[in-house]
Amino acid sequence: MTWQNRVKPAAYQSPSGDRFEFDYEDVSRTTEKRTAAFSFPRIDDNYIQDNGYGSRQYALRCIFWGDDCDRLATGFEGALLEPGVGKLEHPLYGTFNVVPFGRIQRRDGLTSAANQSVVDVTFWTTTGVVYPSAQKAPKNEVYAAIESYKTAQSQSYGDSMEVAAVQAQQSVRAVVDEQVKVADKYLSSIANATEAATREFRAWQQTINTGINVLVGNPVLLAGQMVNMLLAPARAVIGIQNRLVAYVDFLRVTFSAKTFQQAVPTNRRQQVDVANEFRTLDMNSQAALVAMALSAVESSYRTKPEALSVAEALLGQLATVAAWREAGYASLASDDFGARVNALDDGIAWQEATKVISACAGYLVLVAFTLAPERVYVTDRPRTVIDLASELYGDVDDSVEFLIASNNLTGAEILEVPRYTELLWYPT
Question: Is the full-model pTM beyond 0.85?
Answer without folding.
Answer: no
